[in-house]
Task: structure prediction
Amino acid sequence: MKKTYALFVLTFLLFLGSVSVASAAPGEESINGFQRDSLTLKLLFRCGHYNFDSAFCDNGYRVDAFFQSLDSLSQRSGISIDNIAHIRSSASPEGGKRRNDFLSLQRAESLVSIVKSRSSIISSFEILSVGPDWDSYNILLSKSALSSAQAQRRFYPMLRQATMTLYYYPEPVRIEKVDYLAPAPGLVWHGQNALAAHPVEQLREPVRFEKPLFALKSNLLFDALGFVNLGVEVPLGQRFSLGADAVFPWWSNPRKDFTMQMLEAELSAKYWFGGRAGKEALTGLFAGIYAGAGYYDFQLGRLTDGNGVQGDVFLLAGLQAGYAHKIGRNLRLEYSAGLAYLKTEYYEYISVKDTKFGNIKVIPYPWQAKRTSGVMPTKLSVSLVWMISSKKGGRR
Result:
């Protein structure tokens, strides 16, 4: 039981990227017949950054622990420490490849700077900069039951890293005579005494990913009132979106003095807050602007004694804010409210029955339009959103 518990603790520490001293199993991790062990230091970086942040994910603690272990090893007799450190750095796959290649290499260089400032034992570095690490992501994804969005949120932060491995031998070894394994083709290596390797364009297995195209929306509050409506929203990158909405109920029953007619078109632009890496499009907190125009005719039968109001063109423009979340793979609920400046002209009318033209709407004299304008609430919605995406093949 104690051995099982110790193995579990060691595995957990390795997963968190803590400094580890990993013993090689017999016949493994050997060079020229010598068994070797290793010290490992892993730094994690914020999305889009490559500068060392000691407070981020306990980076400072891991650096201190690594060099304490290195100092302790250097004071032990009979230990041979390699003077070449091997660094593997990478970036998460979101964003452009050129930018991710740059971030990956700069993260390795940040780690090199830290090591040079803390130790004179390590004199050379081999840097393996893989750029966007699709291979590691797909391995993690294949071993999980997470959706694509959940996997991105969980695994992408693990790929923004630089990991250094320093080998040592528990016996005296002539380090300069050890043969190093050649790096795999297609990888970029840098550093004094590093083995040469030329970048090679490799064929990658195709993977499938979903690219959000646009969303169809309907305000459930309008639906409950009989206001037929439809909206379209298009994400622009990770933080912006543009939308267009139309409201078009056209119900009428002259016998019951009932009219519910409205034509409105509205355009909107939104900014989505928070960290967007790995987040589903059109989810989270947002704020934005909107503007619209239209006309209307409302008559509610006995509730208004057959009277009604008919509006000429109205104009509005204002600010909105809200929140959206997923309720299914392609479905979201969006809650929003808006405050706008509204300007409109309208006529009040009465219903006159049994004329030779049938039941008609009559505007009493004088036939002058009334006007109203001002800042007022003009938007309240609980919208059902259906995201339309395209499934495409990509290179890992």
Remarks:
- Helices lie at 2-15, 59-74, 97-118, 134-142, 148-159, 220-225.
- The CA atoms of residues 333 and 384 lie 5 Å apart.
- The first strand starts at residue 20 and ends at 22.
- DSSP finds six helices and 19 strands in the chain.
